[in-house]
Design goal:
643 residues, alpha+beta, Immunoglobulin-like, 3 domains, eight-stranded mixed beta sheet, three-stranded mixed beta sheet, 18 helices, 44% helix, 17% strand
Length: 643
């Protein structure tokens, strides 16, 4: 215990020194690396480390003590290790006081040799990560050290690693047409989506039965005037609690403009939400019940009986807690869907959600006679819950699809995604029709509302079916942005697929050859508005004809595919800080913010073959005529500039 505590404190102290600038490098081992060419595409890497006096290194794995030896990792998965690594040094066996055992260690100088093979261009410097454990007489300390090896015969590929294009002047385009500030998501649209989500939550078994119970509590416990005031305060606190959930996102570290987008498009976050939605869906189907710890709800409920404003607040908090099993999935969708537009969008969505949950309690307190018009709790609530379960399954496939797209796993292709939605829609329809295999044991009533929703899910299912085909009927404009792009298909030649370039340098080269302007499309695999533009605006004949006069290049800012080793580098930002460019998304996100001072997607910019900005960039432009006018303005300005 003492050793672990000492190790933690020492690690924290060394990190503090490094961040505070008191130490240039606090590592116990200082490394140098070289790469010797032994054949075409094959190298022998030599890493030499100097161990600080008074410390020793566990160079070899000691299974009995669960200590790993020196390990080498590469950020580029195309680099393959060949054979076993060879470790040499001043080895000796000591009575190790850290483990109170006899162990083999090395001191002074250590050498690690590893043969590798790699394809493509050989970089002048190859990045590797060395992991190992060091110790003195009291403390065990793991270290991770990034080391650059000078590669024999390597090529400096700085030209292909360009980020800042000095000829692009965002303040002085050739023509002034277009929006100087790209359009993002409409905050009122986010608010409305949140409001609709709250209305759905109201109809769940976790919330609906609470409405008459809570309103009666306020109206019967005190005078009518006092009861109405308390009900409004209660509703306000419900609204406030959900808004407060967005506050932490305003305190995320500054200086990284892509951080919220990175969070919302993180494959691991999307995988977590996929698992959460599956768990909630199975709960809605009645396999088990999900609740927060009863102690949490009990504490909040105990404090709600004080009869004061604070007590009313805890009543609202109790509702938020006990309804979590129904509201959690809706809030999760809101979180991932709104974050890429910034914390303010998340606040708008949660405000809409909280408002729609709060309104019934205030309105029914104001007009208690309307309580009699509410349908009684019963079997229909179970049906709502099961239908929500199928919707949760449909949403789950969306989250795993997001991860699949950014990681290029190639599992959830467009037709598989739509096919799963068809299956969910079919199951929902059959369940509402009460036919096998979903026939209920008790009598089922077919009200007008139920007939409407049965017809709705049946029509939606029929609408989706052509989406699994490779025909002109597979467009599905109403759900643009939700399924994967047309080109991410199980078919070799998808009907609507027109694959653009995905590399800026290739686009510049082609533009110079054909003397055409370049249309830069900053997009994302998980960007809904990007898909809407591609599927509903770019496909319009007039727009498509104009776009054919440009060299189109689509740069994906959320692409998690790692760049080849030769194209990974460290970029120095204008403020002097550095950023590691490891993935495709790292490169194009930085390219966008550095040259166009924006991190919104979609963002469209027109530049000349010699890389000068033609007109003001624009963002999401759902009106095809407006987008067409912007393209035409840029094309006219380019033609004038040639003369």
């Amino acid at each position: 215990m003492h050793t672990r505590k000492t190790s933690f404190l020492l690690t924290a102290f060394l990190l503090l020194l490094q961040f505070a600038g008191f130490a240039q490098d606090s590592s116990i081992v200082q490394w140098k690396g070289t790469g010797k060419k032994i054949a075409e595409g094959q190298y022998e890497l030599h890493f030499t480390g100097t161990i600080k006096s008074g410390w020793h290194l566990y160079a070899k794995t000691i299974a009995a003590l669960q200590i790993e030896g020196v390990k080498i990792n590469f950020s580029d998965s195309s680099i393959k290790k060949e054979g076993e690594q060879v470790v040499t040094g001043n080895f000796k066996t000591i009575n190790d006081q850290v483990f109170a055992a006899s162990t083999e260690i090395t001191e002074g100088i250590i050498s690690v040799v590893q043969k590798i093979s790699l394809a493509g261009a050989i970089p002048s410097k190859l990045k590797a990560e060395l992991l190992y454990n060091v110790a003195n007489n009291e403390t065990l300390l793991p270290e991770e050290k990034k080391v650059e090896a000078d590669m024999e015969g390597g090529v400096d590929v700085a030209v292909s690693n360009r980020i800042l294009i000095k000829t692009i002047d965002i303040a002085s385009p050739i023509a002034k047409c277009g929006d100087t500030v790209p359009q993002g998501k409409n905050i009122w649209q986010i608010f409305l989506i949140g409001f609709l989500g709250g209305l759905i939550a109201l109809l769940t078994p976790c919330v609906f039965p609470m409405i008459p119970l809570t309103v009666s509590f306020f109206t019967n416990k005190s005078s009518r005037r006092r009861g109405i005031i308390n009900a409004f305060i209660y509703g306000f606190f419900i609204f406030l609690i959900y808004v407060l959930l967005s506050v932490p996102f305003y305190f995320l570290p500054k200086g990284n403009e892509e951080i919220l987008n990175s969070i919302s498009t993180s494959p691991w976050l999307n995988i977590i939400f996929f698992a959460v939605f599956i768990v909630f869906a199975l709960s809605f189907f009645g396999l088990y019940e999900i609740t927060l710890p009863s102690s949490v709800a009990n504490r909040a409920d105990a404090k709600s009986n004080t009869g004061t404003i604070l007590g009313i607040f805890f009543m609202a908090l109790t509702l938020a807690i006990v309804s979590f099993s129904c509201t959690g999935p809706i809030l999760g969708s809101l979180l991932v869907g709104a974050l890429d537009g910034g914390a303010i969008n998340l606040t708008a969505g949660l405000a809409g959600f909280g408002l729609s949950l709060a309104l019934p309690f205030a309105l029914f307190a104001l007009f208690p006679q309307l309580l009699s018009s509410l349908p009684k709790s019963g079997g229909w609530l179970k049906e709502v819950k099961v239908v929500l379960g199928f919707i949760e399954l449909a949403m789950a496939i969306k989250f795993i699809s997001n991860a699949d797209l950014t990681q290029h796993w190639g599992i959830i292709k467009r037709e598989i995604f739509i096919g799963f939605w068809v299956l969910c829609g079919l199951c929902t329809t059959l369940y509402l029709l009460n036919v096998p295999p979903f026939k209920q044991k008790y009598p089922v009533k077919f009200s007008k509302t139920k007939r409407f929703f049965t017809a709705f899910f049946a029509v939606v299912t029929l609408y989706l079916i052509p989406g699994v085909t490779n025909t002109k009927y597979a467009k599905l404009s109403f759900i643009s942005g939700f399924p994967p792009p047309y080109c991410y298909s199980i078919y070799d030649k998808p009907y609507y697929c027109d694959e653009p370039l995905k590399d800026y340098e290739e686009a510049v080269k082609l533009a110079k050859e054909k003397n055409k302007p370049i249309l830069i499309d900053f997009t994302g695999w998980n960007c809904v508005n990007c898909r809407k533009m591609e599927e509903n605006v770019w496909t319009k004949p007039d727009v498509k004809n104009l776009m054919d006069k440009f060299i189109l290049v689509s740069l994906y800012v959320d692409d998690r595919q790692k760049l080849p080793a030769a194209k990974q580098f460290t970029y120095k930002l204008a403020d002097g800080t550095t950023k590691e460019i490891v993935t495709v998304g790292d490169k194009w996100a930085t390219f966008e913010t550095e040259n166009f001072k924006n991190n919104a997607q979609p963002l469209y910019a027109l530049i000349t073959p010699d890389e000068k900005l033609i007109n003001n960039p624009v963002g999401y432009t759902p009106d095809p005529k407006a987008y067409q006018q912007w393209l035409q303005c840029g094309l006219d300005a380019f033609e004038r500039s040639k003369k």
